[in-house]
Every structure is written in structure tokens, then in C-alpha cells.
Amino acid sequence: MNNLEPDVLNQVQKGSQEGFTQLVEVFQRPVYNLCYRMLGDVDEAEDASQETFLRVYKNIKNYDHKRPFSTWLLSIAAHHCIDQLRKRRMVVISMDSIPYLDPPDGSPGPEASFYLMENQKRVDTLLKTLNPHDRAAVIMYYWYDFSYEEIAQSLSLTISAVKSRLHRARISLAQTWQEQQLNNFSTERNTHESPAV
Amino acid sequence: MNHQPFREWLLSKEKLSADQTQSLQDHLHSCDSCTQIKASWLEVESVFHKTPQVIPESGFTARWQAHLLKYQQNIEKRKAWMTIGITALIVTILVGILVTQVWLLIQSPGPYLMTWFNRLLGLVPIYYAFQDLFRSLLGGISINSFVGMFFLVGIISFMSVLWLSAYRKFSMARRFA
To answer: Is A1 part of a structural domain of the chain?
Structure first.
């Protein structure tokens, strides 16, 4: 993940507006990605990212330099998203809103784009089956390469709690995947089978 | 069939010992459920690794700046309303006191003025008592010069604070040009 120069962080802590703009430029992608993976909706992810930066702006003086800035920032984003998920609980989010993807190989062809979109939908569906804390742990582990310690620090959990949450999430994700495959298979069979006359 | 601790080993990123690996392989040969879980998990992990980061719509920083400006304006507005509210409260209390006093004066001006005159006279013994107290405490310094010095120091301190805060306010860089 991109890192900010310590000088810029010092300036930001002293109230530099330009420094903060630079910080937003550098961290907008990881923050937005985390919010999108947590909330599964483009508009909500945008609002949550903006709110995260506002919270950072208000609390920047409390930031402790001993801790990596990215961990602190993503911890604020994750906690905000967990709160949002708890608030909305029963609200159903539309799956039609597809975010902008950042493909690793520049501009992919139509087939690769389609494949990316399909993967995107699968990931969204899978992540939605997890509870907010497990979801945050999985996202931090697989998209940010956070260590168990960093995840524990970010989500205010113990290391053993993180390990057990990740284990539980992996089993749940594998089982959901199996169910999805079975559903897809039966749907395809029904489509191709000719009706008995 | 008991799937523990094999499921944990199967999904764990931690390195297994040779014995653990062997017993896991033995278990997988005889357990379809764990084999399926393993296969599914590998597919899920592969999908996770192939899915890139999502990025915000362009102009995120500009939208953030607008968001911040709105937040700061709201703070200013809240401060202004709070000042107006406190001022209105103080004015209401003062007007209430004034109206009560004027009402008493209109109702019975003679006794009212006498009461206030008596109250003022009541302050004279208190003044003398203080003067005696200060004379015994501070020796030759009279209460008048002490009160004068007290006010002088007070005014100088107040002016210094005012001057410093004004200097700080004008010398600070503006957040928005």
C-alpha cells in the first residue's frame, strides 16, 4: 500500500490543508476499496470513504506515529463500515451498481472485463454472507496483506480472535461457494433439459 | 466423522509438521466433505486473488474538499447560532430583571428608593471592615491603592491577552483563499 512521507504527516498534524489533500490523494483507493468490499454498494462506499477522511481530519492530532498510518486509517474505515452494516441490517442493497475496477494489466479486452465483472459479483455475494467483523478481517487479510497483529489492532480484537474469525469465515465461504456451484449446476440442467411430453 | 483438527489445518496458513501433513492426507482420502471444502476454498481464494481493488469515480479529492468545506461551514453556523442563543438568553435575563425593578419602582417609588439607599449605606461598614483587614495584613498600603493596583494589573493583563489573540488570529495562514 502507498505510504505517506513522515514530513507530510507532520504537516497534516499541524493543520496543513495541502498536506491533507495529498493524504486523500494517496489513500483514496485503499479506503474506497475497503468500504466497497464491506458495504457492497458504490454510493454507500463513496459516502463511507468521505466520512472516513472526515473522521481522520477531526482526529489526526490523536494519531500515534508508532503505529503505521495505513493501519490506523483503515481501522477507522472498517469501524465506520461495521457501524453502517449494523444500522442498515435489513436494507437490501441493489446488485446493479458495479464499481470501477482496477485491473492489474491496464485495459483488459471485453472477455477479460466480463470475467472480472463476474468475479466481482461472486466476491460481493460471498462477502455478504459473512458478519461485519469476519468480513473486515477477510478483506484486510486478502486485499491488504495485513498480518494477524495488524488486523487485531485495526479491529480491536485479540490475535487468537482474528485467527478463529478467519477460520470460521473460510469454512463459511467454502460452503457458500459449494452451494452456489450446486445451484448453478441445477439451473443449467433445468435450462438444457427438454420438457417431457 | 470428526473433522477436527483437519479442517483447521486445511484452511490454516500456518506450516504443518510432517506428521500433521501425513494425517491430513490420510483424512482427506477417507473424507469427501473435507476434500470438497478444500477444493471450494482453493477456488474462493483464487477468485479473491484475481479480483482487483475497486477504485472511486474520478474527482474523489475534489468531492472530499467540497465535503470538508460544507462540514466547516456547518461548524461555523453552529457556533454562530450558539453565540446568538447565549446572547439572547443573557439579554432575556437582564431584561427580566430590569422589568421587575422598573415595575417595583412604578408601583411604589418611595419605599423602593429608600430600600436601595439603605442597601448602599449597608456597604459602608463592609468597606471599613475591609480597610481595617488590609491595614493589618499589608501594613501601610491603603485599600484604595490596592484596589487601584488590582484594576491596573487586571486591565494590563486583559489588554495583553487581547493583543496576543489578535496577533495570533491575523498572523495565522488562512485555510481557504
So the answer is: no
Cα B72 to Cα B147: distance, rounded to the nearest angstrom:
45
What span, in angstroms and rounded, lies between the C-alpha atoms of A71 and A12?
17
Beta carbons of B37 and A36 less than 8 Å apart: no
Cβ contacts of B68 on chain A, cutoff 8 Å: 54, 57
Residues 6 or more apart whose CB falls under 8 angstroms from that of B140 comprise none
Give B175: exposed, middle or buried? Use CB within 10 Å, 0-12, 13-18, 19+.
exposed
In the structure grid, which three cell numbers stand for residue A6, read together? 513522515
Residue A86 in any domain: the answer is yes
d(CA B111, CA B118): 10
Residue listed under C-alpha cell 462477502: A127
Range of the structural domain that residue A121 is part of: 6-192
Please give the Cα distance from A130 to A136 (Å, whole number).
9
CATH number of A28's domain = 1.10.1740.10
| B40 closest CB neighbour out of A102, A167, A177 | A177
Residues of A with CB below 8 A from B35's CB? none
The pLDDT tens digits of the residues spanning A14-69 come to 888 889 999 999 999 999 999 999 999 999 999 999 999 999 999 998 898 888 89
CA-wise closest residue to A154 among A70, A43, A40: A70
Question: Looking at the 3D structure of chain A, how many domains does it have?
Answer: 1
Q: Would an 8 Å CB–CB cutoff place A112 in contact with chain B?
A: no
Q: Write the DSSP symbol of residue A100.
A: E
Say if CB B144 and CB B128 are below 8 A apart.
no
Give the predicted TM-score (pTM) of the model.
Answer: 0.70
